[in-house]
């Protein structure tokens, strides 16, 4: 039973493409040869980034010496680009919290913000057969294998402005599932538990949409798997307990056979006695390969040839994936005003986690022992075959947390615990303080700043979403196998919003207004397009930054397909910003993005939805 309630993920590779309405997608990859090319890592200074007063709570980055001593890569080129001069807005604001909804009805084990309709989709697991919200009426769900009915709600849509909730019916268990948004903004959900493990589900963003479910669509069960979006908009899913394999998600209504499942030895090799390689971190690199991190190892996989083309150095210090449950993200992809590089450099960030035996100590040993979590953060250029980990230390240990890429390109480490492991009642010491990570390209001047704490522990099964107004929606936390109140960490149904440092009321003057009616919201790869802001004459171009953000599917400390891209500004005149769209789907997979205009490091009052496609 301990194994059953723990959950493990092996890498399954799934492509989901389904119908694409008005968009016809090209073939997923435009080359079959290894496309790796080495490039300098550009510094991401946010063009106009905030200086946060540390008040004694800032920690400078400490390079572990993995970079060469002379500040150059092995080919002799500089490993840091020139810094852009700018005037920084000053603030000592450490963020603020607000209770948005007292009872969401469902403890959000999984969450994704749906584009255009600005509603957060949240769901837990049908295995509990209970929640805090009843379905509005019949029919109830038939509990598999029994004659019982489950009349409780396990999936909701929440309006992120008003808090209004719409219950959704779901039949096939979503416990520890995976997902991603397709090119038209639909959620394509894969896997889960029991009757949901081989299921593909679709939720559209059209009014009054309900779940459409396709049980048996996957060739293997996918429980604790990771879903990644490819350059043409299709999906791959990696792993799942007992299945060290991957597959492409089939078109809507079709089913994969076992012949369409690929064995993946890397997942076998990275499997500890207590797993530690479920929910692997999987990212589409800007060269078209997939970066895959499991346990403490990482590779590049060519999804065309199914060949591992490179393995990076081991990241020391413990395990990072479930149940060790560190967090990870891609650092911002920075584009030039007239981008023509064959491959654009990009770095990955991996933070926190636990010693390899933390789950054994917390879950299987009696009395329970809660080992301290990891305090390190490591980053590496994944387009450089000579890439090495650069390791810094956070102000405190963190596991079960999330790495949020903010609209400005800074990273917010939030949620989680300081000791223990993922699992039922297996963690202690809630880490209530978010930590802001402001980084430089060379890593030397990077800095962590401890932000103001929440009063609500967000432990195992917490989630987040970046909102159009640049606040962060925080939900979930359930360390219990069901909905329990009289325990150390009750099942959490409250919903909070966190306002980061850039929402200091004293900086409100810098928040710009996008004139949506005068801006382009349908964009093709490489195309010039314009965004209009309201106060053109008073704005200095050197203080402007435009970013686009891909909405992640978040669960268990993993943020599938989270991606932020800084666009190059080609022209600026009287409020009209002329930009170049990303050149291809390796940089920005097709789909919906939130576009932010930041000024002096302060995001606009509300982002704009844009759809990028071939």
Describe this structure in words.
There is one protein chain. This protein is an all-beta fold. It is built from 2 helices and 47 strands. The strands form 12 sheets. Strands 24, 37, 39, 42, 45, 46 and 47 form a 7-stranded mixed β-sheet that branches. The chain has a 6-stranded antiparallel β-sheet with strand order 10-9-6-5-40-41, with no helix packed on it. A 5-stranded antiparallel β-sheet has the order 2-33-32-29-28, with no helix packed on it. A hairpin with a 2-residue loop joins β20 (290-294) and β21. The radius of gyration is 22 Å and the shape is globular. The protein starts with 50 loop residues before the first strand and ends with a strand. Mean pLDDT is 88; it is low at 1-49 and 62-86. Residues 58-81 are annotated as: Disordered. Residues 109-502 form the Glyoxal oxidase N-terminal domain. This is Galactose oxidase. Residues 1-20 form the signal peptide. InterPro entries: Gal_Oxase/kelch_b-propeller, Gal_Oxidase_central_sf, Glyoxal_oxidase_N, GO-like_E_set, Ig-like_fold, Ig_E-set.
């Amino acid at each position: 039973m301990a194994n059953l309630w723990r959950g493990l993920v092996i890498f399954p590779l799934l492509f989901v493409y389904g119908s694409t309405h008005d968009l016809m997608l090209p073939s997923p990859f435009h080359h079959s040869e290894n496309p790796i090319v080495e490039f300098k890592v550009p510094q991401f200074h946010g063009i106009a980034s905030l200086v946060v007063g540390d008040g004694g709570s800032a920690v400078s980055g400490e390079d572990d010496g993995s970079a060469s001593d002379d500040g150059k890569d092995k080919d002799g080129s500089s490993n840091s680009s020139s810094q852009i001069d700018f005037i920084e807005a000053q603030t000592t604001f450490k963020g603020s919290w607000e209770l948005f909804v007292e009872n969401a009805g469902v403890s959000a084990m999984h969450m994704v913000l749906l584009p255009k309709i600005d509603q957060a989709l949240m769901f837990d697991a049908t295995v509990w057969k209970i929640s805090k919200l009843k379905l509005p009426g019949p029919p109830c769900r038939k509990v598999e294998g029994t004659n019982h009915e489950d009349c409780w709600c396990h999936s909701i849509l929440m309006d992120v402005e008003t808090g209004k909730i719409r219950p959704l019916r779901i039949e096939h268990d979503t416990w520890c599932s995976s997902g991603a948004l397709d090119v038209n903004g639909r959620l394509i959900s894969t896997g889960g538990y029991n009757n949901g493990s081989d299921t593909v589900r679709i939720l559209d963003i059209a009014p009054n949409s309900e779940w459409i479910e396709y049980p048996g669509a996957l060739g293997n069960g996918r429980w604790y798997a990771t879903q990644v979006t490819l350059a043409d908009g299709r999906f791959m899913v990696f792993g799942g307990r007992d299945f060290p394999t991957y597959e492409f998600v089939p078109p809507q209504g079709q089913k994969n056979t076992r012949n369409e499942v690929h064995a993946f030895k890397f997942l076998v090799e990275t499997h500890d006695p207590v797993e530690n390689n479920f929910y692997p971190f999987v990212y589409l690199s800007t060269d078209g390969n997939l970066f895959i991190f499991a346990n403490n190892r990482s590779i590049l996989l060519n999804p065309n040839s199914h060949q591992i083309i490179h393995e990076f150095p081991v990241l020391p210090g413990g395990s990072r994936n479930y149940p060790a449950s560190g967090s990870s993200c891609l650092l911002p992809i920075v584009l030039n005003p007239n981008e023509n590089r064959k491959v654009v450099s990009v770095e990955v960030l991996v933070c926190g986690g636990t010693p390899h035996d933390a789950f054994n100590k917390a879950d299987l040993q009696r009395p329970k022992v809660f080992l301290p979590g990891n305090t390190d953060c490591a980053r590496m250029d994944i387009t450089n075959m000579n890439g090495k980990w650069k390791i810094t230390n956070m102000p405190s240990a963190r596991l079960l947390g999330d790495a949020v890429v903010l609209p400005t390109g800074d990273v917010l480490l939030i949620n989680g615990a300081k000791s223990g492991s993922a699992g039922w009642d297996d963690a202690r010491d809630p880490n209530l303080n978010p930590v802001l990570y402001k980084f430089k390209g060379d890593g030397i001047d990077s800095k962590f700043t401890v932000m103001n704490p929440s009063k609500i522990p967000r432990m195992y099964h917490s989630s987040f979403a970046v909102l159009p107004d640049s606040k962060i929606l925080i939900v979930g936390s359930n360390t219990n196998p069901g909905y329990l109140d009289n325990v150390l960490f009750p099942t959490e149904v409250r919903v909070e919003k966190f306002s980061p440092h850039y929402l200091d009321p004293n900086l409100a003057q810098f928040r710009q207004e996008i004139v949506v009616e005068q801006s382009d919201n349908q964009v093709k790869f490489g195309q010039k397009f314009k965004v209009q802001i309201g106060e053109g004459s008073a704005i200095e171009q050197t203080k402007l930054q435009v970013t686009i953000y891909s909405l992640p599917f978040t669960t268990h400390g993993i943020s599938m397909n989270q991606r932020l891209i800084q666009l190059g500004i080609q022209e600026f005149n009287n409020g009209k910003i002329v930009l170049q769209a990303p050149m291809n789907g390796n940089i920005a997979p097709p789909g919906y993005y939130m576009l932010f205009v930041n000024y002096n490091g302060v995001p606009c009052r509300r982002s704009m939805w844009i759809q990028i496609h071939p």
